[in-house]
Each structure stands twice: as C-alpha cells, then as structure tokens.
Amino acid sequence: AAAAAAPLACQEIKVPVSDRSLGYYEPRMDECSVLSCLASFCKEEWLDGDNKFSCENCYALQREQEGTPLQPGEKNPGIKREATKKFLIARPPEVLTLHLKRFEQQGFHLRKTSKRVTYPETLDIAPFCSENCAVGLYENDIAGILYSLYGIVEHQGQLHGGHYVAYVRADEKTWFYISDTSIRQVQLREVMAAQAYILFFERLY
Predict the structure, then answer these.
(1) Is-contact 165 156, C-beta < 8 A?
(2) φ/ψ (deg, to 5) at 190
(3) What span, in angstroms and rounded, lies between the C-alpha atoms of 80 and 83?
C-alpha cells in the first residue's frame, strides 16, 4: 500500500515543516476525473482556530531568543500556529488501488451516486507524491511516476439491488468483461466507458 505523508508549513516562520510535492495539477472547472479527485484529496488545507498546528520549530526559536535554549531530552510542547497541510504519497506502491466514493449519506439515508468519473489508461501520480519519491524516465523522455490501468470493478444497479462486474486486462491490448460465470472479450472503448467503482493500476518502470 502507498504510504501517505502530510507535509506542513508553519505560517509564522514561513518555512516548511515537511517536504513538498513533485509537481502540480490544476483541474478544469468542470472536470470530474481520477486526476481531479486526486487533486481535491491532496489540496492544501488551512489550519486555524481549534485546528492550529503545534509548531516545535517556533517554540525552539522562542527559547533561543529568550536565552534559554532547549536542553537535550527536554520536552518541546510547540506553539499553536496557523499552518497549511496537504496529503501526499510518500512511497508509490507496485499496485495502486483507487476506490471511488459511490455511496453517500443524505440526511438519514444512503444513496448511490452515478456521476461519470473519467480515468486514463496511463496515470501519472507525480503531482500527488512527495518530492522525496524517485521519478522515472519513460519513452519519448516522458518523466513521471506512471501507472497502467489493468482492472476495474463496476457496481451496476442501485444501493439496495446491485451487482458487481469486472473488467480485466489479459495483455497489452486484450480486455475481458467478467460477470459471475459469464466472460467475454471487449473493446477498450467499453472499458473506458465503465462506471468505475474501484480502479487497479500497476507501476510502469
């Protein structure tokens, strides 16, 4: 599984407390895709009020300015500061599994959302990774952290009466549709038009 990092930047001393992302992805206004979902999940969040960050750097700096620097082993309680936070992938996995939220709470009821979410055959997650991650160099000098789509789970029907089917890639160009004991070969356009619930990508090297 991918490890998540949460880089923080204290707004008082204007320095990062943790590392940054490898790049940046700006979704279109009307975009609803796997990339826009990842961008939303990794969007920078402002921490203020009761959510202020306890900055140990600020406390250590304050103690130095007061002439009473922290001693080895002394507890650093930090100082509450406004900060920014964002989630990033610290270790890209061999297999990347993306689970789209298809069921949501509305009042006291659950409902299924059937909104179309597009996804690519080849996914570059570099904009959503920590800068400490190693970037690969691929054909045509394309740099990134690339993944290839190889499986999809689709939920058909509604919340209280549905059925799960799958699309599985057998080789570079061959896809199959699987529903219980029924299996048939399908074209890529059908795969890319599925109402994906879970997506499976494998790392390209």
Answers:
(1) yes
(2) -70, -40
(3) 9
The conformation of residue 23, written as its DSSP 8-state character, comes to: -
152, β-bridge pairs:
167, 199
The amino acid at residue 81 is R
Q: What is the pLDDT of residues 15-71, one digit of tens each?
A: 554 556 666 788 888 899 999 999 988 888 888 888 888 888 888 889 889 999 999
Q: What ranges in the chain are assigned the alpha helix state H? A: 34-41, 56-65, 188-192
Task: Count CA within 13 A, CB hemisphere, residue 115.
Answer: 14
As a whole number of angstroms, the distance between CA 170 and CA 154 comes to: 18
Amino acid symbol at 125: I
> Strand, helix or coil at 20?
coil
> 194: which DSSP letter?
S
In the structure encoding, which two tokens stand for residue 174, read together?
């061959």
